[in-house]
Design brief:
Number of strands: 0
Oligomer: single chain
Radius of gyration: 17 Å
Largest sheet: none
Helix content: 55-70%
Structural class: mainly alpha
Length: about 120
């Protein structure tokens, strides 16, 4: 894969991409839920998206299953608590290469900060 630290670096980027996808789906479903005049069937939409998208995202299976079991998502917190994995943080001493690429990883960083806001309410 690469030199020392390459696997960790690649995994951090992968996690950031997953966080971005999950955040985008969550925001999309929240917007659709608020458009009551369309009477959208969110479990049905999730099921269609599971198989009707070019991008296969295993989390959509979980989203579809969750919405089918609990369409109103009652008693489910609007955040994901920390689950033991490290988050992408370019200020960390173990991620200096990330900061030196000159590339913006804005969506993953924004999601990380949103998670922290919910965690420390």
């Amino acid at each position: 894969m690469g030199g020392s630290g390459a696997g960790h670096f690649v995994k951090m980027i992968h996690n950031g991409i997953e966080y971005g996808a999950m955040q985008a789906y969550a925001e999309g479903f929240a917007i659709m839920k608020k458009k009551e005049e369309f009477d959208l069937n969110l479990p049905e939409i999730a099921e269609i998206w599971r198989f009707g998208s070019v991008i296969r995202f295993m989390a959509m299976d979980l989203i579809s299953d969750g919405l089918n079991k609990n369409p109103e998502l009652k008693d489910i917190a609007p955040y994901v608590s920390r689950f033991g994995r490290r988050t992408l943080d370019c200020r960390r001493s173990d991620c200096p290469r990330c900061c030196r690429t000159g590339n913006n990883f804005g969506s993953a960083s924004k999601i990380k900060f949103k998670r922290k806001r919910f965690l420390f309410r």
